[in-house]
Every structure is written in structure tokens, then in C-alpha cells.
Write a structure and sequence with these properties.
alpha/beta, nine-stranded mixed sheet, 13 strands, UDP-N-acetylmuramoyl-L-alanine:D-glutamate ligase, four-stranded mixed sheet, globular
Length: 314
């Protein structure tokens, strides 16, 4: 039986590095490296969970094309249950050109493709009900299911005793907080990035941001704070957990790796401090290699990393 079901966006990432300038019109520019990787929040989080050792299913939609074949094969190669990945005969698989800069930051050119065609009726609730946690990975960039349909799905999951988790991708045309708000009463774990959370709530301070989500019914807020680690808040708990000190190679997928680490803690029943530290560790390992999931390690290796790697001070 699967432990986590990741429902969300599936993307083929064409990653080039380093790219600090763009070629003039009609000109060619060489890069040191270019690779094809699985991407999108559902794939990234799902593969990271599988590498950690958590039994995982993925639900989403791809096109009937080469990129779609590639994504399904990658998921299956990691032992992920892909019964919930649907094929769309009209839309091509979503893809992103990822330009990794010398400092590890990245810029994107994105085609939304089949992710926009995912509908509530595409979701196999039997798969959802078999898991301990339903993780919505990529809210705000799935227009066919965002908002009320996702709220309906989350409510159904909770009625069946499934814990719910929610992560976002900021999209200026998505409706922002108005789109997310119907989902909030049915979310156990809200784990957006700090920048996305600022834009959703209109607040700047992590405590104020978390309070907005809590006031709307979320049980636990875990904010991905980048260089500042993470901030976790419930009605009774406030935790600021620093990052681990590593040399960043590529920040792609770090937020999804954090989500995988956080969900691992949820599945294993850890307290929030241990969960946050482990999530920070998975995110830190992620940025040490090129690609969204390449740097993620097993549970045992990650725990060893936590014992031997210093955390940032202050």
C-alpha cells in the first residue's frame, strides 16, 4: 500500500548550465551541460519520496508523446505507482527550459500543456484512499482542477481518513488567495515557499503569514524559507529551523525535496521539529547536484548527513 499520493503537475525539464546571458537573436551559445530530467512538483516530490524510501503514487496528466513516455518511465523506474497518470490525446506533455545560472539560481521558459487538462474526474479516488497522505503538488498552475474542485477532493480525502498536504506554484493569473481559500479548511499541512506565501496573504512576516492560513483552517504551516531554513507554525507551536550548510550547485527542485522530507516526517509520525530538520536536510542535499532530484538520498544517508553537516547559525 502506498504511503503518499502526490497529485499535481508533471513536467519534462530540459536543464542547461551555466546560463548567465542569452544568445543574440539568430546566434548559438554553448553551455557546459544540458540534460533531460523529470520535473514538476508531483514528479519531483514523488521521486524524492521514493528515493528516501517512502512508498508513493503519482496522479497527474501527460500527453501521448515522447516527453510523456519519458516521465512515466522515470516514475516507474523509481518504483512509483503510476496508475493515476492519465494520457491526454489533445495536449502535449508540459515542458520547461531550465536555465541554471552560475550561482545556482534558475530561470524558466514553461509550457503548461497537459497539466491544464487535469480534471477532478481524472482523479482515481481509490488510489487516494489507499494512502496515508494526499499531497497536492503545484496548486495554482492546474486551472482545470484548482480552487473548488481541489477543495472537494481534499474534503473527500479527509472524510476517508487521509491526511492532506498542499504546496503551491505562484501564477499571477491564477486568482491567488481567492483560488486557494476554498481549500484551506481541508488542509492538514500547508507547505508553500515564503515568497509564494507572501503573495498569497499580503503579509511579510512569517508569523503573520502562518496566522492567515491558520485562521482559515489549516492545521500546520511549514514555510520554506530558503537561506533561512524553514518556519513551522501551529496554533501552539512556533519553530524556526536553520538550513544545513552545503555548496549549492543547482536550486532546482529544492522546494519539492523539502516537501518530500516533510511528508516523510508526517508518515513516520515524527514531531514537527524533527520533521522540519529532516525536510531541511533533504532540501540541502537536493541543491548539491544538477537536476530536481539527483541529489536526494535514502533515509539512512540523509540521517547520516544530518549528523555530520553543520547547520547555519543565526
Amino acid at each position: 500500500m502506498n504511503e503518499v499520493t502526490c497529485l499535481g503537475i508533471l513536467v519534462a525539464d530540459v536543464v542547461g548550465k551555466p546560463i548567465d546571458t542569452y544568445p543574440e537573436r539568430g546566434r548559438l551559445q554553448l553551455v557546459e551541460r544540458m540534460e533531460l530530467h523529470s520535473g514538476g512538483c508531483a514528479a519531483n516530490t514523488g521521486v524524492s519520496l521514493a528515493k528516501i524510501g517512502v512508498r508513493t503514487a503519482v496522479i497527474g496528466k501527460v500527453g501521448n508523446d515522447g516527453f510523456g513516455d519519458f516521465l512515466v518511465q522515470v516514475l516507474q523506474r523509481h518504483g512509483i505507482d503510476t496508475r493515476g497518470v492519465k494520457r491526454d490525446e489533445r495536449e502535449a506533455t508540459s515542458a520547461t527550459m531550465v536555465m541554471v545560472h552560475s550561482d545556482g539560481e534558475r530561470s524558466f521558459i514553461h509550457y503548461i500543456g497537459a497539466n491544464a487538462a487535469l480534471r477532478l474526474e481524472d482523479v482515481d479516488m481509490e488510489i487516494v484512499q489507499q494512502g496515508k497522505v494526499l499531497h497536492v503538488a503545484g496548486a495554482l498552475v492546474m486551472p482545470g482542477i484548482d480552487g473548488d474542485p481541489t477543495a472537494h477532493l481534499l474534503r473527500q480525502a479527509k472524510e476517508k481518513g487521509v491526511l492532506t498536504s498542499f504546496d503551491t506554484v505562484w501564477n499571477t493569473s491564477s486568482g491567488g488567495m481567492n483560488t486557494v481559500k476554498p481549500c484551506l479548511p481541508y488542509i492538514d499541512y500547508m507547505i508553500p515557499s515564503i515568497e509564494e506565501a507572501k503573495m498569497l496573504t499580503g503579509k511579510e512576516d512569517p508569523e503573520d503569514i502562518a496566522q492567515v492560513f491558520l485562521d482559515h483552517g489549516v492545521k500546520v504551516v511549514g514555510l520554506k524559507m530558503g537561506e533561512r531554513g524553514c518556519y513551522i507554525r501551529t496554533a501552539d507551536i512556533r519553530l524556526s529551523i536553520p538550513r544545513y550548510q552545503v555548496q549549492a550547485v543547482d536550486a532546482l527542485g529544492a522546494g519539492d525535496a523539502f516537501a518530500a522530507g516533510f511528508l516523510t516526517g508526517v508518515v513516520k509520525g515524527w514531531d514537527l521539529e524533527q520533521t522540519g530538520r529532516f525536510a531541511n536536510a533533504v532540501g540541502a542535499l537536493c541543491v548539491t547536484a544538477l537536476g530536481a532530484t539527483t541529489g536526494v538520498r535514502s533515509l539512512e544517508e540523509t540521517l547520516q548527513f544530518m549528523q555530520t553537516t553543520p547547520m547555519a547559525s543565526g
